[in-house]
């Protein structure tokens, strides 16, 4: 596995997050809603504090964008760490196994390093721009599935933005018939990493935030996958809509989104 200083920092920061999460797995959680169906726990908050403390110690001049503290909302060209302390908080709060820590470093508005750790399986997905992607130190690649009938994909169900539900359900109904299978693990970072290592052939979702995709999208791209927004463009980090996949299945999903989702719904209203 290719290592550089930034990847080492990202890995160590994410591992500190995992340690914190595991310390809460046998405790009663304090949970509240920060938005409609959008949970936050005391574990999220402490995990983020510990990750950010490590990053600030080792990279004191860098910017930070994190889910719970949101140090700033947009990217300049400066070095910026983008952190999701627990992606899959609802899973975590219900002791359902899929939840991840995500740490990315962006510079000049491009992802440079990405780390996603799935806590329960202790799977460490990593990528460095231009150097490739790995799972627990082993090189990974997207699948070579080309036919929709053979495609196994991930998605996310709408939970706090229901404005697209009718269009989404029409798309979902069509894909249920066209594809081999669809799954919804409940953590977009994990879904994207499953694309990167070939478990999923594709993935699409809307209402995502930058910290949900900043690390995992780089992992997909470095594994040979394609990442776009729902218009086939590059506005996926803050655009709240993403399609990922191997090149063939990505195109299938993009075509179906264009077929079933009205053009005015293919980008977020901000």
Automatic annotation (TrEMBL):
- The EC number of this protein is 3.1.3.25
Q: What is this protein called?
A: Inositol-1-monophosphatase
One GO term under biological process is: signal transduction
What species is this protein from? Rhodohalobacter barkolensis
Co-factor(s): Mg(2+)
Q: Which GO terms describe its molecular function?
A: inositol monophosphate 1-phosphatase activity; metal ion binding
Q: Which UniProt keywords apply?
A: Hydrolase, Magnesium, Metal-binding
Q: Which residues bind Mg(2+)?
A: 67, 84, 86-87, 212
EC category: hydrolase
Q: Which reaction does it catalyse?
A: a myo-inositol phosphate + H2O = myo-inositol + phosphate
* Name of one Pfam family that matches: Inositol_P
Protein transport as UniProt keyword: no
Q: What family is this protein classified in?
A: Belongs to the inositol monophosphatase superfamily.
């Amino acid at each position: 596995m290719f290592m550089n200083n930034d990847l080492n920092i990202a890995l160590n920061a994410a591992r500190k997050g995992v340690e914190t999460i595991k310390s809460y797995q046998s405790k009663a959680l304090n949970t509240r809603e920060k938005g409609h169906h959008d949970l936050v726990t005391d574990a999220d908050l402490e995990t983020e504090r510990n990750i950010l403390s490590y990053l600030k110690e080792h990279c004191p001049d860098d910017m930070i964008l994190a889910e719970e503290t949101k140090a700033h909302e947009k990217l300049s060209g400066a070095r910026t760490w983008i952190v999701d302390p627990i992606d899959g908080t609802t899973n975590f709060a219900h002791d359902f196994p899929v939840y991840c820590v995500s740490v990315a470093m962006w510079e000049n508005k491009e992802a440079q390093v990405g780390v996603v750790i799935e806590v329960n399986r202790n799977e460490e997905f990593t990528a460095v721009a231009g150097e490739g992607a790995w799972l627990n130190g082993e090189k990974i690649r997207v699948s070579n599935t080309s036919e929709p009938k053979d495609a196994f994909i991930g998605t996310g169900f709408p939970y706090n933005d229901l404005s697209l539900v009718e269009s989404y359900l029409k798309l979902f109904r069509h894909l249920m018939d066209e594809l081999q299978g669809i799954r919804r693990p409940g953590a977009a970072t994990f879904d994207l990493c499953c694309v990167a290592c070939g478990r999923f052939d594709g993935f699409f979702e809307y209402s995502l935030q930058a910290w949900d995709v900043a690390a995992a999208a780089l992992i997909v791209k470095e594994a040979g996958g394609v990442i776009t927004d729902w218009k086939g463009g590059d506005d996926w980090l803050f655009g709240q809509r993403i399609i990922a996949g191997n090149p063939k299945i990505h195109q299938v999903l993009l075509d179906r989104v264009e077929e079933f989702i009205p053009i005015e719904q293919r980008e977020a209203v901000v």
